[in-house]
Amino acid sequence: MLAIRMRTRRRKAVAFATAAALTALAVPALTATPATATTEPPVTAAATATATAANSAYDSTYYKNAIGKTGTSLKSSLHTIISSQTKLSYSAVWDALKATDQDPNNSNNVILLYSGVSRAKSLNGGNTGNWNREHVWAKSHGDFGTSTGPGTDIHHLRPTDVQVNSVRGNKDFDNGGSAVANGGGSLTDSDSFEPRNAVKGDVARMILYMAVRYEGGDGWADLEPNNNVNNGSAPYMGRLAVLKAWNEQDPPDAFEQRRNQVIYDSYQRNRNPFIDHPEWVEAIW
Predict the structure, then answer these.
(1) What is the DSSP string of 96-128?
(2) Which 3 state secondary structure label does DSSP give 131?
(3) pTM of the model
(4) InterPro entries this protein is in (predicted)?
(5) How far is it, in rounded angstroms, from Cα 203 to Cα 223?
(6) How many Cβ atoms are within 10 Å of 285's Cβ, its own excluded?
(7) How many domains is the chain built from?
(8) Which domain holds residue 39?
(9) Residue 57 lies in a domain
(10) CA atoms within 13 A on the CB side of 31
């Protein structure tokens, strides 16, 4: 009887591994789907595993000095890896976002981060009805502005509706609040902003990328997540516990993976490691 149970367990393990491998092969690394206000990502461990498997090719090359590490050692290794990058001017960000955030169903449009709306690339600017360049890590948190460096790093710069961007302002991220007009399901209160469900993980991974990339050794502030809101001009962004939960709830999807690849291939030549390995969030924090 014991032998039968052991054979049954082995068969189940083999079947699970085979299914996982087939799922990973089914994910097109450069195929994007629109992040609309009505699209909700699957909240499953399998989805996170698939995202990881889809980018494992970089483990033996780009990430080779980080593999197998955890905690501060992993964070330090990733910082060294991703700090090698090409830097853009703030004006060059406009054209970069038109490529990184292109609507996969309409090459003339971009997908707006918080609202999920598809809007014409030509409508970039500062007026009502336009889209502009949102610093997901608010530029006042560390006072880096729009100078070349963290202020122009497109791993955390995204197209957003001008008015929704204004509502977000420089608020920290947290759960709760009232609905944001034309915000696609985003919520806000006096001291925090909660993006729509479909991009909660995107926001978390952008914030944590910034915390690893900018450690204070290159003339910019040492950016770090914490569990506070109302961080003001301090180089902190909260809440870390909520960001970690969002990373788990909303694994990287095809749109986010494609975006990471376009930035790597065509612009900055560095990657957001938490898109390739979302499990590294828990390994560090």
Answers:
(1) HHHHHTEETTEEEEEE-TTT--EEEGGGBSSST
(2) strand
(3) 0.82
(4) Endonuclease-I, His-Me_finger_sf
(5) 15
(6) 15
(7) 1
(8) 28-284
(9) yes
(10) 5
